[in-house]
Amino acid sequence: MENTEKLFANREVCDLTFVDYKTKTPFLNLDFANVTTTELTGESVFAYGGKGHPKRVAFSGEKGGTLTIETQMQSFKMYQLLTGGDVSKTAKFIKREILTVSADSTVTLTETPSDSGVVNIFAENDDCGEAKNITVAGQTVTITDAAGGDRVIAYYIKDITDKVQKISIKGSSFPKAFTVYGDTVMKTENDELLPYKFIAYKVAPQSNMSLGMSNNGDPSAVTITCDLLVNENNEMLDMILEEDE
């Protein structure tokens, strides 16, 4: 009998949709990955018997696996998926600016410090060295040991409230569980493109993330590793191939 099963190969990444496992609400459309890898794992133990201690019976168990995603493109929503951190629209960050002391021994900061009075002033040629003696009133800083025309460096914490995203990661922050839908294409020996899909019914992103910053080489990549779990129906993974007529 002729074997009519189609043989195919893959050289395309999966687009992924992460759906909140509890609420069933779509959380992230991850259609910018470079590599997606699904690995299934299990353990085998054996009953032995007879001379030479041969294996007689095999037992399989501990079914599991991982879904691994490598991506150079990134988003804050992806960071939230990985960390389980809280998202807000305000932040604080340090401000550094070089200013010229006026004739009345004052400088005017470009922004109001978020922590009132917490400002550090250094001589331009002594950055982060010996702090100047100052008093602070809003954005005006009076320097008692500086003269008009001196150049100084100011450090203070400012509020960021416009067009900003912040993820706060705490010791108690952990990723949610998700259902993941993936789709790509397989190419057959006859040059057909067959839609391939998978459903990972319950995945738990691992709380590991490495963010590399470099001024040379390839753009930095982030690797996301999710553990495959089973849902309440003991479902772990469906693999779907749509065949052309």
Brief summary:
The chain has 245 residues and is mostly beta strands.
Question: Can you describe what's shown?
Answer:
The chain is mainly beta and 245 residues long. The chain contains 1 helix and 17 strands. The chain is elongated. The two termini are 20 Å apart.
- Rg, please? 29 Å
Q: Could you state the order of secondary-structure elements as H and E?
A: EEEEEHEEEEEEEEEEEE
Average pLDDT works out at 93
Major sheet summary line: 9 strands, antiparallel
Q: What characteristics describe this protein?
A:
245 residues, mainly beta, 9-stranded antiparallel beta sheet, 3-stranded antiparallel beta sheet, 17 strands
Task: Indicate the topology.
Layout: E1 8-9, E2 15-20, E3 26-30, E4 35-48, E5 55-71, H1 76-83, E6 86-88, E7 91-100, E8 106-108, E9 119-123, E10 134-137, E11 140-143, E12 151-160, E13 166-168, E14 178-188, E15 193-205, E16 222-229, E17 237-241
Antiparallel strand pairs: 1-14, 2-3, 2-14, 4-5, 5-16, 6-13, 7-12, 8-11, 9-12, 10-11, 14-15, 15-16, 15-17
